[in-house]
Amino acid sequence: MSSETTGKVDFVIGSETYQTSFTIYGDLKRSQYRPVVILHGGPGMSHRYMLPHADLWTQGGRPVIFYDQLGNGSSSLCLGAPLEFWTPELFLDELDNLLRSLEVANDFDLLGHSWGGMLAGQYAATRAPAGLKRLVIVNAPASVELSVQGTNQLLSRFPPEFVSIIRKHEADGTITAAEYLSCCAQFHKKHFCTLDPWPQSLIAAFQGVETNPAVRRTLMGPTEFDITGTMKSWTTVDDLHNIACPVLLISAPQDVTQECAVLPFFSKVPKIKWVELQNSTHLAMYEESERYFEVVMGFLNGAPGA
């Protein structure tokens, strides 16, 4: 079963018109299931590494909408945009625009991974979208401060000389040094993706960040161990009680996004199911795909309000 549609929708900001690139698997008009919109991670990646979620269509019959967030992939890159251009609200507005343009705003599900899960949670908590029926938050923190706290807890488990290399190069601003990059790679292999080698789509996603590094560097900063970008104080914790739809929260004990960073979702969202996947880290759709999609499909196919 295959049906793939690609296109772009205009996204107007002030006097400028940008474009959001999308790919749809399935038929939005004829399917018996509402579509699920996929928010990729980053900031600065594209939807390509999230394509395993096309299984929601090929195996489950549910239309899937992928898109590249502004500044990424095949959407407008906005090279040279001022730093203040890049805000979480920009991406929430883009999501609103996409939903309206594709005429699904009245009945849809969201699935956000990592940074995409942060956006999805903020969208559900602050914009009260009546058409949002189910929300899946995957490996995403409820606040940047808690995310950094958890990441550094994991870092502290490495040998002292390993941590010293990380700290030294961050302090000196030499994060392109070979030994620093080697340490980051070791950290990622243990807490980001345990597969060896990594899937090519994931490698390409990482490389894609450098196409427009301003997006990630403005919002988060150059490293993951000390967030210095404009989102360093970002949090949705105080708004999570406003999420009205059922939520599925997916995490993993060895994920770079630690339990302390996802716990506020479970504590504050009224209708939530929390699943910890034991055999994966940050990318269960690759590392533990069978179990991951069993959990996701089961939730999306659940009874209304459950």
From TrEMBL:
Q: Which GO terms describe its biological process?
A: proteolysis
What does UniProt give as GO cellular component?
membrane
Q: Has keyword Disulfide bond? A: no
Residue ranges annotated for the AB hydrolase-1 domain, each copy included: 36-294
Q: Which Gene3D superfamilies match?
A: alpha/beta hydrolase
- Gene Ontology MF term list: peptidase activity
One Pfam family of this protein, by short name? Abhydrolase_6
* Keywords for the protein's UniProt record, in alphabetical order: Hydrolase
Q: Which InterPro entries match?
A: AB_hydrolase_1 (IPR000073), AB_hydrolase_fold (IPR029058), AB_hydrolase_sf (IPR050266), Peptidase_S33 (IPR002410), Pro_imino_pep (IPR005945)
What family is it from?
Belongs to the peptidase S33 family.
Q: Which PANTHER family does the protein's record reference?
A: HYDROLASE, PUTATIVE (AFU_ORTHOLOGUE AFUA_2G14860)-RELATED, MONOACYLGLYCEROL LIPASE
**Name of protein:** AB hydrolase-1 domain-containing protein
The organism encoding this protein is Hypholoma sublateritium (strain FD-334 SS-4)
